[in-house]
Amino acid sequence: MLPKRALDDDEAAHTGNMASSAAPPRGRKRFAYDLRNASESAAQGVEVCGARLSAISPGEEEGSFDCVITLPGGTPQLAISILVSDTSEYPTDHTFFCSTQQVLQPEIASILETVHEDGSLTIQNLLLRLSERIAKAMTMLHRQAASDSEAEGSDEDDAYNMSDYDVDGIELFGMGVGGQTLDRTVLQRDFNEIVAHGYNPGFIQSGSDDFFISISIPVQSLAETISARALVAWDRRLLERPQHLTLLISRVHGVYPLVKSDGMLTHTAIARGAMPHFRIGLTSRYKPTEDDATETLRRFGLQERYGLANDDQASEVVQEDTFYDDEDLAPNEPAPQSEESDSPESRATPDFRPFSLSSSLESLLDGHFMQLLRLRIDYGLGWAGAEFLRWETEVSQKRTEEILAWKLEEIKAVDEADAILSESYNLPVDCLSERNAQDAINLPLAAFSYLLRRLTLCPRYCLVCHQQLKDELDALKPYVCSSPLCTYQYYNLNRGPSLEYEICSNTAVVDLLVSLAYIAAAEGSLDAPLPVGMGLRAKGAAFGTGQYDDPNKLYDFDSLDLPKMRSVIRALIDMLPPIVEMKRYLEQPLKSGRVRPRLKDMSSSIPADAWLVLRWIVASCTAYLEELQSDEEKVKNMDPAWRQFRFSVGAPDAEAKFRKAIQTAKKENQRAQQFPSLYAWHGSPARNWHSIIRHGLWFKTMANGRAYGHGVYFAKDGSVSTGGYAAAATSCWRNSAVKANACVALAEIVNLPSKFVSTSPYFVVSQTEWIVCRYLMVRSSSASVPATTTLPIPALPPMGRDLAASDGVQDELIVQDDIPYVPLDPTHPLTLSQAMIRIPEPSYALEKLLAALHDDFVPVEFDRADVLVLAGKKPDNSSLDAGAGPERRDDIADDWEHDPEWVKQATEHLMPPPVESSPSASSALQRELRSMLKEQKSARSLRELGWYMPEELIGDNLYQWIIELHSFDDSIPIARDMKTNQINSLVFEIRFPPTFPHSPPFFRILKPRFLPFIQGGGGHVTGGGSMCMDLLTADGWLPSYSISSVLLQIKLAISNLDPRPARLSQDWSRPYGMHEAIEGYRRAANHHGWKIPQELDKLTR
Questions:
Q1: In DSSP terms, which residues pair with 778 in a beta bridge?
Q2: What is the pTM (predicted TM-score) of this model?
Q3: Cβ(386)–Cβ(376) below 8 Å
Q4: Alpha-carbon gap, residue 539 to 551, rounded angstroms
Q5: Dist CA 555 CA 540 (whole Å)
Q6: Where are the beta strands (DSSP E) in 505-612?
Q7: CA distances to 39, 40, 84, 339, 572 from 46, in Å
Q8: Of the residues 166, 509, 1054, 1065, which has the fewest C-beta atoms closer than 10 A?
Q9: Cα(693)–Cα(700) distance, integer angstroms
C-alpha cells in the first residue's frame, strides 16, 4: 500500500496544491522531491493489480531514474529506465520516456514505447499507471496462452477479474482497478446545471470502461457575446457554417466525479491515473462521435514526401507536432479531389476540427486549469487573481503563502480590475462565484466557463506563456509577449495560427503582407517588432555590398544592427516562391492516413529561415484584412486601380468602445444624432503600412502633418491622401501578384469635430478610441487592373443642407438595391477627386452572415446516451442492480399494451417492401433486429421503453419495419389528443436502403394524421407524415446510430413544444400516402439545406 504521505503529495501534484509546506511547486527541486518520496514508498511496498514496484532509484543522467517491477505468476522482473524531457518544466509541461535492455513481448514493449503519449504526469502517477497497464497486459497474455490449448471459455472470461490478484491498494483507493466508477447521480446533476447555463453537455462511451465528456455552444450564440468582427479576424472558420465550439475532456479512465469539493482529485481518480485532458475544436453536432473523440488522442501519422513521382514517393511514420498536427491531418476546407478520392481508402474529414487558437487554449487548460481551480477554491480568488498568483509562484519558485503575504493587495487589485472588463467584454457567468465551500464542483462547466473567458479575452494574453500582455497598444488578434522564449516557441514550434490555412484561404492578403514587409525592409522603415528570438541565422552576403567581413560566415540575426536585419529580411523574402504556388502545393490531393504537405518540404533550395520569416510576417499581423470581392461590399466610386480590403485593427472591445463614444456624442451633439459618425481618408507612404497594420493609426509615431497639432490626420477628399501623402513604393517583391505600390485607409470617426484638434484643412483627432479603420485601399504597380462596375452617384445636396430636406435624396442615398449605405454628414462630405463616395454599412456583411447561420441552425437534439443522463436513468444494459433479477412486466400495473387491430388498420394500404438489397446492409439489419427484439424483451416496462415492434409483422424482408411509438407525456397536447380519440400509438413504417448503415433509413407515420405546420401544427412532422429532422438526412446521419436511439430522438422531437406543439388533424383517421411523405421530406430538406440521400427514390420501388 502507498503511504499516506505519498498519496497526499500525488494529490497535490494533480490539483495544484502549491500551498503544501513540503513540496516545491515545480522544477528540479520538485522532481527530486517526488523521486525521493516514490523511492521511500517502493521500499515500504507498492502493489497495483499484482504488479509490485520493488525498487526505485536515481539514474546516471540528470532527470532519469530506474525502477524494477515484479510481476505475478513467476514472471521475471522488469527493469525500466525512465527519463524526463526537462526537469525544469516538471510536473506540468514535460514528457516521460521509457526504455529497457530486456527482450519483451510486443504487448509489453508497446506500453513502454507509448508512455510519452500520456503527457505531463507526476512520477507517482506515471508508476501507478505503468504498473497497472503492464499487469493487465500480462493477464491477457496468460489467458491467450491458456485459450490456445482449451475450449472457448465462458463469457465471464472476457472481463478483467480483479480476484485473480491480491491487490493491497483496494482499501486505500476504495475501488478496484478496471471498469467504470461512474456516479450517474452526480453526472445528471452536472449535466442539468450545464444545460441551465445554456451549454450542451455530451457523454461519449469509449469501449466498455471509459468515456469522454464534451460541452459545447453553437457558434452563432458565441457571436452574441464576442464581436463577430473579432471572431472572423481570429479565424474565419468560426463563422463559416453552423457548428459548435466544443470542449472535449478525455483520459478520465472511467471515473466521475474527478474532483472533490476542495478541487483535489478523488482517491479513485488518482488510483486510476485519471487526469483531465482537454481538446478544443469545432463540431457539426453538439458533440463528436466516439471515433472522432478517440482520434483526438492519436499522435502519429504517415508523412509523404510530396513532389516525387508516385512510384518513387517516400513515406515515413512521424510523430505529429503537438501544436500543429490536427490542422495537418484534418483538412479544414475541401482540398481538390483526385480520381481516387471516392475510393474507400480516402479519408473523410473528421468532425472535430481544431482552429487557430485550439493549441494555445489546450496548452492553457492542460497545464494550468486544475491548479488555477484549486487556487480559487483555497483562497477565494477570481480567475484573474488565481492566474496572477499562479504565474508569480512559478516565476519566483516560492511557496504560495509567501506570495500571498507579499502581494495580497496586488492580487486583490487584479481581481477588481478584472471586474471592470465586463463593461466592454461580455464575459461568461462564473459558476464558482456563488458556491459554498462544501458544494461539489462541476468540473466540465468550470472548465468550459474558463475556456470561454479566455477565448473572449485572448488578445490580452500571450499565446505561449498565457500571461497578460503589457503592451501599450491593444491588438485585435492574439499574439505573443516580448519574451524571446515565447517568440521562439510561437514561431519554431508552431504555437500560433496555421500559416498554411492563411495561404490557402486568404491568398491575396498573405501576398500583400509579404509585399509590405519587403517594401519596409528595402526602404529602411522596418522597425519593431522584428523577428528576434526565432533562432535566425544569416550569411554575411545577405547584408549587402561591403557590409560583411565574410560572405559565407553565418551570423546570429539577433546580434545584428537594424540596417543589417532589414537586409537579411529582404534577402530571405526574395527566396520565397509566389504565394499562389505555395497554395497550389498545399492543396495537393490528400490520400488516406497521410499528413498534409508542409511548406518546409516544398523545395530544398528554400532555407528554413525564409519560411520562418514568412510565418513571422503573417502571424505578427494582429489586424484583420480581407479582400472585398462582391460589389455589395465595396466602396462605390473608387478608382478601379485600387484594390479594396476590409481592414480592422485594435482590441476586440474597440468596436464596443467606439459605439459607446457614438452614444455619448448623440447625447452631446444634435448633429451626431442624425449623423453619428464621419468618414475620412488617411494616407501614408507605402513603406509605413507594414507598421500601421500592426499598430493602428497611433499618432505618437506618425511622421506627417504636425503643423496642425498632435493627432491622427485625415483628409475629406481622397485625392489629398492618394496623392502626396500616400507616396508610392520605390521597390517591389518580385514574386508578388498584388504588387502593392501605394496604400490609403478609410476610417470611421465619431462626429464631434468641435472636439478635434483641428478641422481645417484636415481632421486632426487625438482620441484614438474615436477612430475605427474600415477599409484599406491598395494600388497596384501593375498596369492591367480589371474595371469594376459601380452604382451611379447622385449629386451632392447644397452644402449645409440636411439630407432629410433634400427632396427625398436621403432615402436614395441610404438604401439602393437592398444594400444599406452609411448616412454621411453633408457638412463634411466624403469625396474622391470631387466625386461622392458611398459606403456600404460596415456591419451589413457580418449581419447577413450571422442571419444565415441562424436560419441554417438546427436545434440540438440530445442522443439517447445524453437523454438518459439528463433523466437520471442508466443505460438499458446496466439499468438493473447487480444480482437483482428484472421485474416481471406482468407485475407492473398500468403498463402499455399492444393493440394488433389498430396496427392492422394502419398498415392496411402499406406498399410492398423495397426490392434492392446488399449483403452488408442485410447483415447490419439482422444485427439491428436482434438488438431491438432483445431490448424490447428485456425492458422492465413497455411504457418506459416508449416504442414497440410488433413481432407478428416481422416478415421475410428485412428492409421494411413497422414500429409503434407510444406512452407520451400526459401533459403535452399530442398525448391528450391521442387519449381523446382513443389512439393507442403512432404507427411508423421504416424503409431501409441497400447502403444502410452508411445511409439513413426513411421514417414515416402511417396513422394517425397530424395537423400540418402551415395550419398550426408542430412536432417536426411534415405535411406528408415524414420526419423533419437533420439526423435522418445524408448530412446528419451517422453509421453508429442505432434504430432504438433514433426512435427516442423522434419521440422527443414530436414531444417538443417549440415552436409549436404537435396536434392531431381533424381527419386523423385518414392514412398518409408514400408520395406525400416523400414530397414532405424533400420540401423540409430543401428548406433547411439538408442533403437528400441518393437512394431515396429507390425506397419506393
A1: 643, 743
A2: 0.60
A3: yes
A4: 6
A5: 7
A6: 537-539, 554-556, 594-595
A7: 10, 10, 22, 58, 58
A8: 166
A9: 15
pLDDT at 116 over 70: yes
**What are residue 776's DSSP bridge partners?**
645, 745
Q: From CA 1081, how far away is CA 1027, in angstroms rounded?
A: 7
What integer pLDDT is reported at residue 225 of this predicted model?
83
- In terms of Cβ atoms closer than 10 Å to its own Cβ (0-12, 13-18, 19+), residue 2 is buried
Q: At a CB cut-off of 8 Å and minimum separation 6, what does 808 contact?
A: none
Cis peptide preceding 1001, ω within 30 of 0 = no
How many Å is the maximal CA-CA distance in the chain?
Answer: 103
Write the secondary structure of 854-884 as one string of H (helix), E (strand) and C (coil).
Answer: HHHCCCCCCCHHHHHHHHCCCCHHHCCCCCC
The tally of CA atoms less than 13 A away on the side-chain side of residue 365 is: 28
| Number of residues written out for the chain | 1101
Query: Between the CA of residue 655 and those of 229, 406, 773, what are the distances in Å?
Result: 9, 38, 10
Q: What is the DSSP string of 232-249?
A: HHH-GGGGSSS-EEEEEE
DSSP category for residue 674: H
CB hemisphere CA count around 495 (13 angstroms) = 24
Round to whole Å and give the CA distance between 321 and 493: 8
* C-alpha span between 46 and 44 (Å, rounded): 7
User: Exposure pattern of 566-595 as b/e (b: 16+ CB <10 Å)?
Assistant: bbbbbbbbebbbbbeebeebbbbebbeebb
Q: Can you give the three-state secondary structure of 257-281, one letter per residue?
A: CCECCCCCECHHHHHHCCCCEEEEE
Joined together, the cell numbers standing for residue 1074 give: 408514400
d(CA 675, CA 680): 14
Rounded Cα distance between 137 and 125, Å, is: 18
What is the average per-residue pLDDT within 716-729?
88
Rounded distance between C-alpha atoms, residue 298 and residue 347, angstroms: 15
pLDDT of amino acid 979: 93
Please give the grid coordinates belonging to residue 508: 491575396
Measure the CA–CA gap between 609 and 573, rounded to whole angstroms: 10
Sorted by sequence, the CB contacts under 8 Å of residue 931 that are 6+ apart come out as 1042, 1044
Note the pLDDT tens digit of each residue in 1065-1080: 999 999 999 999 999 9
Q: What is the pLDDT of residues 211-252, one digit of tens each?
A: 999 999 998 888 888 888 888 888 888 888 889 999 999 988
Number of helices followed by number of strands (H, E) in the chain: 35, 31
Considering only residues 1064 and 157, tell me which one the structure prediction assigns the higher pLDDT. 1064
In SS3 terms, 967-1025 reads as CCCCCCHHHHHHHHCCCCCEEEEEECCCCCCCCCCEEEEEECCECCHHHCCCCCECCCC
* Backbone angle region of 817, left / alpha / beta, with phi > 0 → left and psi within -120 to 50 → alpha: left
Model pLDDT, residue 335: 39
Name the more confident of 625 and 788.
Answer: 625
Helices assigned H by DSSP within 421-495: 443-456, 484-492
Q: Give the H or E element holding residue 396.
A: helix 383-396
Eight-class DSSP state of 156 = G
677: helix, strand or coil: strand
- Average pLDDT for residues 866-889, to the nearest whole number? 59
User: What are the Cα distances from residue 777, in Å, to 52, 193, 745, 780, 844?
Assistant: 71, 50, 6, 10, 19
- Nine cell digits for residue 694: 500592426
